[in-house]
Amino acid sequence: MRRPRADLEAAHKNLTRRATLLGGMQLMFVTGLAARMQYLQLEQADEYRLLAEENRINIRLIPPERGEIFDRNGVQLARNVPSYRIVIVRENAGDVKTVIQRLQKLVELDPEELDAALEEMRRSAPFLPVTIAENVSWDTVSKVSVNAPALPGITPEVGLTRYYPMGSDYAHVLGYVGPVSDYDLEKIENPDQLLRIPRFQIGKVGVEAKYEERLRGKAGAKRVEVNATGRVMRELSRKQGTAGQDLQLTIDANLQSYVQARLGEESASAIVIDVQNGDLMAIASSPTFDPNLFVQGISVADYRALTQNTFRPLASKSVQGTYPPGSTFKMITAMAALEDGLIDADDTVYCPGHLEVAGRRFHCWKRVGHGWMDLANSLKQSCDVYYYDLALKVGIEKISAMANRFGLGVRHDLPMSAVAQGLTPTKAWKQSTYQQDWRIGDTVNASIGQGYMLASPIQLAVMAARIATGRSVSPRLIKTIDGVETPSGAGEAMGLNQGHLAQVRRAMYEVVNDRRGTAYGSRSIAEGMRIAGKTGTSQVRNITAEERARGVTRNEDLPWERRDHALFVNFAPFDNPRYAVCVVVEHGGGGSTAAAPIARDVTLQALYGGEPPLDAYPRKDRGRISAQQERLREVRPIARGVGSPEEQA
Amino acid sequence: MSYLEYTVKHVPSGARKILFLNWPLALLLASVAGIGFLMLYSVAGGTFSTWAEPQAKRFAVGFLLMILVAMVPIWFWRSMAGVAYGVSVLLLLAVEFFGSVGMGAQRWIDLGFMRLQPSELMKITLVMALAAYYDALPQKRTSRPLWVILPLILIFLPTALVLRQPDLGTAILLLTAGGGLMFVAGVHWAYFAAVVTAAVGLVTAVFQSRGTPWQLLKDYQYRRIDTFLDPSQDPLGAGYHITQSKIALGSGGWTGRGFMQGTQSRLNFLPEKHTDFIFTTLAEEFGFVGGFTLLALYALIILFCVTSALMNRDRFSNLLILGIALNFFLFFAVNMSMVMGLAPVVGVPLPLVSYGGSAMLVLMLAFGLVQSAHVHRPR
């Protein structure tokens, strides 16, 4: 078909018009695209650049090195050691099953841990390392390294973990660290990002927990470039963190180790405090446990064994345990009466073996009675009736107030867990607690440290230190933080009559050094090393009339948990006091037989700064003491020089 | 106008034709392809063999193909228009029955040595068919309803087949290109007004059909539309592509982050960075300067095509060149709108730059037709 030229001309004219129009529309669109490009790339460039950087850069925390802990002489008590673990990278391993089977021929893998690792591998990206064996020995690491060609994707990694070279000696003082738990995180408001690092260790109890902030340090950080799947491509920069601050305790490692060993497996506690400045030289509880068990999470079996032990090894009895102070409280009753001016040291009271108060008969421990007693004799022989009489004259309020001045019923400021307040009862306290009136019998019981009266071993040690110095000595456990000395615990003068204090001290001297004293068997005979102390035997039961009728009153005949607590407090040397000591043996029987001998050994050990010469002991004890010293030398870890995991292995 | 009417004596013959090619246009095409090789080299992490090398080889083949097609007189191509259209529709039907399924859609036929995507071919043959139709149709009949319905059938048949694959992007491209050609051919204004009204109605229908048994699009297509409308609602899921793409573009700034220094593409934050999203890599690494340069090159290609068309007195050539230029324009306009967050992610590659065989070959074939029209224009 032929088209006329005119038609073609018209068509071309029309086409030119339309094509120009369409071309114009296209040009507009291109301009629009350019404008959009300009908006995104020039106007919003900064914002998008930031977003691109956020995409690309991840901040990874570098855990700081935890501060170390030393004793007063620089002996290391807690440090960080490398811990090795075996990790697998799925992507590099290829056939994971075969590789793990080969690994199992070399290393014993915990099936539980292995299952968890396999599960984690299924969930995580193939290039992320997954731990399959934790806390393995250097030996295992070498085996794995040597066989590396046969174990693709498997590498040993090193991290830092806490180690307590002295093991169980400091379990109750330092406490321990452990992996952060969800429970820990919940308790902390706005927790440090560090704590979210898996298996990061924080202080759980004791000094480790109380000084957590200072020991932990500040995290470092590295900036890494990651790709869209999170794989690290390279490290961009790194900022080192600040290591935690070191702590130095007032504890003397040598003495601490001795005391812990001397207590043995008894359920007991002992404290040595420097009376001049309040430094705690030793603070021991037994039985104890190995804090290293907790560092990477304790096994269920180990934990059950610790919690089901009747002797409560996890309890730090020296600060947490409270006991009726028994006769060790008599110095307080005496001081209250003397300071009140109600009696003189020479005034005498007749002890017929009991005292009738408000129609009730209160017995002296010596049923036949002590006869005429003055202050020195009553303390020396621990006559109860003398103190019943004093208490009736002074009243409970003044006794309690005096107890508070000597640090009883007061929570001492110590960086340890669950420090007990004890109890010094008053009329108001009884009214508010039991809605009952104070009865005169309660005062009589309180006078000899029974009834409601409760004190912890640390409080009794502080009491002895205050008696020895007349100053309000307060206990100090941390000597330096990051090299800076903490304030001394020497305290101010208590404002007590020096004469009265001297009379009480003299009486305490006679308790140990007079032939009729209750602790005469536990004396030291070295000149200048004489001990002044007081025994205590505190009842944990009421002897029923029925039992009395049957005649079952001897401690040895009772089940362990109903036997009396044995207590002893002392300071030494008598003429120039340096240390105060408190020993409490739970359900140990009499203070003079169970607690005083331990206290003497501990005191002499502290005074001589090591093993005391046998000359310090009375001649008849020397054979037994010598044998005991030999036995303790063998069990003390410090004496054997055990200190590092390598040596242990 | 039949080929007898061409003043053959003025048309160059033999190898001399090569001198009469539209060389500036060929140079522009080569420049754009060159930018493509550079970017493919970059996104492959600095290796030539992954994408850049095969792409360069294909471009070389495509360039030869273009010259080969240009050597053949345009009147031959006009006479082949109907056959080409018919073969393309048959191939689309073949895809419907024998095609391979990829990315949830049937798009190509595996020929062994290459994967043929008939929908790519269809874009060109539809233009050829429409150009031939309007070349034959007297101007006064152009707007008569009967003569309007015929080209509409020519357009809707392949569009429906492509939509069934389903390939929404190509379907829209076919519709728009076909409609554009009818507009240039001089169909009356009123029809376009009607079409715009109908389009609005269709969009409404598409959205209304969602969740009903007669749902017009697949779920993922709806999600793409949702994501386009509000990418921030799901930045790590469906909106991820658009969000990351905008970040890459924006972080480029004026001059970009440097060749091979684009963190978004190098660290795999960009999806399909060697195909549909390759423009973002360019814009990230060479910034506004790089992105604008490519856009300008594309605009110049369109400009050269339109100029070439308007200079030509042959109606078939006019319509063919304008239709191909429109197709080319739609390619890059839709792709760039998509990566800049102006259009939903519909899977349209960036012409001559995105990695891909059949799209490149078909485009070069189309430019061969443009060159042929240029060489054999009436003088």
UniProtKB/TrEMBL annotation, chain A:
<keyword id="KW-0645">Protease</keyword>
<keyword id="KW-0812">Transmembrane</keyword>
<keyword id="KW-1133">Transmembrane helix</keyword>
<dbReference type="GO" id="GO:0009252">
    <property type="term" value="P:peptidoglycan biosynthetic process"/>
</dbReference>
<feature type="region of interest" description="Disordered">
    <location>
        <begin position="610"/>
        <end position="649"/>
    </location>
</feature>
<keyword id="KW-0133">Cell shape</keyword>
<dbReference type="GO" id="GO:0071555">
    <property type="term" value="P:cell wall organization"/>
</dbReference>
<dbReference type="GO" id="GO:0071972">
    <property type="term" value="F:peptidoglycan L,D-transpeptidase activity"/>
</dbReference>
<dbReference type="InterPro" id="IPR012338">
    <property type="entry name" value="Beta-lactam/transpept-like"/>
</dbReference>
<dbReference type="InterPro" id="IPR036138">
    <property type="entry name" value="PBP_dimer_sf"/>
</dbReference>
<keyword id="KW-0472">Membrane</keyword>
<dbReference type="GO" id="GO:0009002">
    <property type="term" value="F:serine-type D-Ala-D-Ala carboxypeptidase activity"/>
</dbReference>
<feature type="domain" description="Penicillin-binding protein transpeptidase">
    <location>
        <begin position="269"/>
        <end position="602"/>
    </location>
</feature>
<dbReference type="InterPro" id="IPR017790">
    <property type="entry name" value="Penicillin-binding_protein_2"/>
</dbReference>
<keyword id="KW-0961">Cell wall biogenesis/degradation</keyword>
<feature type="compositionally biased region" description="Basic and acidic residues">
    <location>
        <begin position="617"/>
        <end position="637"/>
    </location>
</feature>
<feature type="domain" description="Penicillin-binding protein dimerisation">
    <location>
        <begin position="62"/>
        <end position="236"/>
    </location>
</feature>
<dbReference type="GO" id="GO:0008360">
    <property type="term" value="P:regulation of cell shape"/>
</dbReference>
<dbReference type="Pfam" id="PF03717">
    <property type="entry name" value="PBP_dimer"/>
</dbReference>
<dbReference type="InterPro" id="IPR005311">
    <property type="entry name" value="PBP_dimer"/>
</dbReference>
<keyword id="KW-0121">Carboxypeptidase</keyword>
<dbReference type="GO" id="GO:0006508">
    <property type="term" value="P:proteolysis"/>
</dbReference>
From TrEMBL, chain B:
<feature type="transmembrane region" description="Helical">
    <location>
        <begin position="170"/>
        <end position="192"/>
    </location>
</feature>
<feature type="transmembrane region" description="Helical">
    <location>
        <begin position="286"/>
        <end position="307"/>
    </location>
</feature>
<dbReference type="GO" id="GO:0015648">
    <property type="term" value="F:lipid-linked peptidoglycan transporter activity"/>
</dbReference>
<keyword id="KW-0472">Membrane</keyword>
<keyword id="KW-0997">Cell inner membrane</keyword>
<dbReference type="GO" id="GO:0051301">
    <property type="term" value="P:cell division"/>
</dbReference>
<dbReference type="GO" id="GO:0008360">
    <property type="term" value="P:regulation of cell shape"/>
</dbReference>
<feature type="transmembrane region" description="Helical">
    <location>
        <begin position="146"/>
        <end position="163"/>
    </location>
</feature>
<dbReference type="InterPro" id="IPR001182">
    <property type="entry name" value="FtsW/RodA"/>
</dbReference>
<feature type="transmembrane region" description="Helical">
    <location>
        <begin position="83"/>
        <end position="104"/>
    </location>
</feature>
<dbReference type="InterPro" id="IPR011923">
    <property type="entry name" value="RodA/MrdB"/>
</dbReference>
<keyword id="KW-0573">Peptidoglycan synthesis</keyword>
<dbReference type="GO" id="GO:0032153">
    <property type="term" value="C:cell division site"/>
</dbReference>
<keyword id="KW-0808">Transferase</keyword>
<keyword id="KW-0812">Transmembrane</keyword>
<dbReference type="GO" id="GO:0008955">
    <property type="term" value="F:peptidoglycan glycosyltransferase activity"/>
</dbReference>
<protein>
    <recommendedName>
        <fullName>Peptidoglycan glycosyltransferase MrdB</fullName>
        <ecNumber>2.4.99.28</ecNumber>
    </recommendedName>
</protein>
<keyword id="KW-0961">Cell wall biogenesis/degradation</keyword>
<dbReference type="GO" id="GO:0005886">
    <property type="term" value="C:plasma membrane"/>
</dbReference>
<keyword id="KW-0133">Cell shape</keyword>
<dbReference type="InterPro" id="IPR018365">
    <property type="entry name" value="Cell_cycle_FtsW-rel_CS"/>
</dbReference>
<dbReference type="GO" id="GO:0009252">
    <property type="term" value="P:peptidoglycan biosynthetic process"/>
</dbReference>
